[in-house]
Model the fold of this input.
Amino acid sequence: ETGVTQTPRHLVMGMTNKKSLKCEQHLGHNAMYWYKQSAKKPLELMFVYSLEERVENNSVPSRFSPECPNSSHLFLHLHTLQPEDSALYLCASSQEVLAGRTGELFFGEGSRLTVL
Amino acid sequence: SQQGEEDPQALSIQEGENATMNCSYKTSINNLQWYRQNSGRGLVHLILIRSNEREKHSGRLRVTLDTSKKSSSLLITASRAADTASYFCATDGETSGSRLTFGEGTQLTVNP
Done:
C-alpha cells in the first residue's frame, strides 16, 4: 500500500464513450501526476498539478482532460479515445519543496485502459 | 532530452548472483532515482542519489553516479527470485521546472 489509490484498476471502453479515471492520495503531498505507460516505451508524463499550478505536456491530445479539485484528488477525463490510447495510466504524488523540483514519487497501482 | 536509457534491456541471472543495471542520460541533473515495477503494478521508489553524491547503499542495493560520464549503475547483490521485476532510472533535470523523466527500463529475471 503506497498511499495512492487508483480506480478503476481495469477499464474497457469504446471510442465514443466518456469515462474518468480517479486517483486519491493519503500522504499529504502537494503535487500529483498522470503518467502513461505503453508497451516498449518509456513512461510518458502527461500532466502535473504542483503547488496548485497545472503543468501539461503539450503533446497530450485534448481528448485527455485532467481535473484536480484539491490536493488529494486527481481525475483524468477520457473522451473519444483511439485504440492507440490503450495503456496503463499511472497516478503519482510527491512532496515538492521547490516548484519544479521532483523528489520521490509514490505511484498508484495503475488503471489498465483498453480502447476498442 | 534528459531521458535516461537503461542497459541492458533484459537480464537473466540465477538466484544468489549479483545483477548490475546501467543508466545513461544526456543533460545535467539535480538527482537520479531508481524505481522497480512488478508486472502490471505501479512503480516503487528504491533510491535517490543527488548530483553531488557518488555512491549510495540501501540494503542489498548499491547505486553509483558518475556525473562526468552522465551515467549511473544499480547493483543488486545476492539476488532472489522475488527481485524479478522491471527497473527504471529517472532523472530530475538541473533546469528549474524540468520534470522527472524515465528510461525504458531493464527487465530482470532471477531464476530460482
Q: What stands out?
A: Residues 52 and 71 of chain A are 8 Å apart (CA to CA). Chain A has a mean pLDDT of 90.
